[in-house]
Amino acid sequence: MAPEIAAALPVWWTTWVMPIGAGICLSAACGFRTFVPLLCIGVASHFGVFAVDTQYAWLGSPAGLLALGIAALLEVGGYYIPLVDHALDVIATPLATVAGILAMFVSIGGDHGIPGWLLAVVLGGGVSGAMQLTTVKARAISTGTTAGFANPLVATAELLGAATLSALAIFVPALAVVLAVILLVVLWRASRWVRQRLSSTSHTAS
Question: Are 31 and 23 spatial neighbours (Cβ–Cβ below 8 Å)?
Fold first, then answer.
């Protein structure tokens, strides 16, 4: 965002709303692919497109970019290999939650005190974890209905989702706010539907 535009916006918008919106999109992207959003943040930080606090500067360092690049490449490639994709889901769920927390921390910065910590852990980790569980379910359905033949399509959709959400959060944070609200509504409605299904199933069993 141009400095003159940022200066014209309310402080609460530039210090809270946009960083949180971008953080939600980045956290959701971590639910699709753990390392792709972090790599995007690192590249954007390295070229001065996305400002990060000093403690997160390692993301844009040559060593950080190399490590994130290798991790992202292995992760993306692994999801195109049968059976490996399901094995990756087992370890990706906790990793995605941690990555979502980190992505939210990086987005909002370290000067928001306890509210910032709570936002990162609860909102960042919660969104990324929920999104990851959704992708696990989608892959399980794909495996059960197509014997795994459609899994590469699911993997491609997840990769595109991770890249798109990351790009929006970094380059169009105002639009990321709108998308973040939509994501939260969708995840909330999905969680309600799951709870209702589980409740009806338990009542039927009893």
Answer: no
Exposed, middle or buried by CB within 10 Å (0-12, 13-18, 19+), for 114? exposed
pLDDT-based confidence at 13, cuts 50/70/90? low
Asked if 121 and 23 touch (Cβ cutoff 8 Å), the reply is: no
Could you tell me where the DSSP H helices lie in 109-172?
113-118, 125-146, 151-171
Q: What is the pLDDT of residue 1?
A: 46
Task: Give pTM, 2 decimals.
Answer: 0.87
Eight-class DSSP state of 61? S
The DSSP secondary-structure symbol of 169 reads H
Q: Distance from CA of residue 3 to its chain's centroid?
A: 27
Q: How would residue 188 be classed by pLDDT, with cut points 50, 70 and 90? A: confident
Q: Which amino acid is at 11?
A: V
pLDDT at 8: 55
How far, in whole angstroms, is CA 17 from its chain's centroid? 17
Q: Are 99 and 37 in contact (CB under 8 A)?
A: yes
- How far apart are the C-alpha atoms of 179 and 161, rounded to whole Å? 12
Q: Which two tokens stand for residue 188?
A: 């909330």
The count of C-alpha atoms lying within 13 angstroms of the C-alpha of 28, restricted to the half-sphere facing its C-beta, is 26
What DSSP character marks residue 149?
A: T
**Spatial separation of the C-alpha atoms in residues 78 and 182, rounded to whole Å:** 30
